[in-house]
């Protein structure tokens, strides 16, 4: 798959997820074979660009090319400026968020709320494409609600304006993350346009990835929640066989990831962000409740890592 002039190394893309796809996690997923890893969304409001949250989301140091940065907003001029700002900070692809179902995003008429206003969608796409010399991509849902699935209309418009690739989550905004994703709408979009189509939604295994590609004929698939605590899923997809790291390999991955979070965010925030990743890596494996409670209360980096030593090197936990 090509996006603009960029040849994407594999057809497996890490989805942008706020609070998750920071630089440390993107690097790990790229190492396991993700052909592209899209950053957390940056708000198009310039008043927010200097906040710590936005500044951290604009760090791409050491990231494999191409760097894809996502922006979110509702004002065409602001979105154009945000695209330029992202490129100035190192983005090589700009991704427009019109798929986020979160209330705090939609109540500002951004994210998937934009799917209700096709004219505004067109204005935003035109403004962003004209503002930068790098490829612009778009992420959408199938529509605002099940009675108004306009993904095909949006897709045709996007292609005509100059969008270079389109990612589609197989739910409406109304669905949020409830029920199961449907892929028939994505298949219809693929039939309707010639730019790359990236299918997204509930893809958490090699078998599901094969199923989605067969149904949609998409050019690539995008992995979101399926990669949480499971970045080696990308290796399974590339090798076309289930890959599970050994106990030692898993320990090394988790230790490296948590240490990187401490370094990237600083001690206090790094420890806080690391907690959810540790739980994702644990999955449904059982550990003593007192261990879990003590680990989640830990406020010292070295002690948090010591808990990882204790838990992730215990074969009784990971091979129970």
Automatic annotation (TrEMBL):
Pfam families: Dus. FMN binds at residues 16-18, 70, 139, 169, 200-202, 224-225. GO terms for molecular function: flavin adenine dinucleotide binding; FMN binding; tRNA binding; tRNA dihydrouridine synthase activity. PROSITE patterns: UPF0034. Keywords: Flavoprotein, FMN, NADP, Nucleotide-binding, Oxidoreductase, RNA-binding, tRNA processing, tRNA-binding. SUPFAM superfamilies: FMN-linked oxidoreductases. Its EC number is 1.3.1.-. The keyword Amino-acid biosynthesis does not apply. It is an enzyme of class 1 (oxidoreductase). It catalyses: a 5,6-dihydrouridine in tRNA + NAD(+) = a uridine in tRNA + NADH + H(+); a 5,6-dihydrouridine in tRNA + NADP(+) = a uridine in tRNA + NADPH + H(+). The keyword Cytoplasm does not apply. Its cofactor is FMN. InterPro entries: Aldolase_TIM (IPR013785), DUS-like_FMN-bd (IPR035587), DUS_fam (IPR001269), DusB (IPR032887), DusB-like (IPR004652), tRNA-dHydroUridine_Synthase_C (IPR024036), tRNA_hU_synthase_CS (IPR018517). CDD domains: DUS_like_FMN (cd02801). The active site is at 100 (proton donor). It comes from the Bacteria. Residues 14-307 form the DUS-like FMN-binding domain. HAMAP family: DusB_subfam. Belongs to the dus family. Belongs to the Dus family. DusB subfamily. Catalyzes the synthesis of 5,6-dihydrouridine (D), a modified base found in the D-loop of most tRNAs, via the reduction of the C5-C6 double bond in target uridines. This is tRNA-dihydrouridine synthase B.
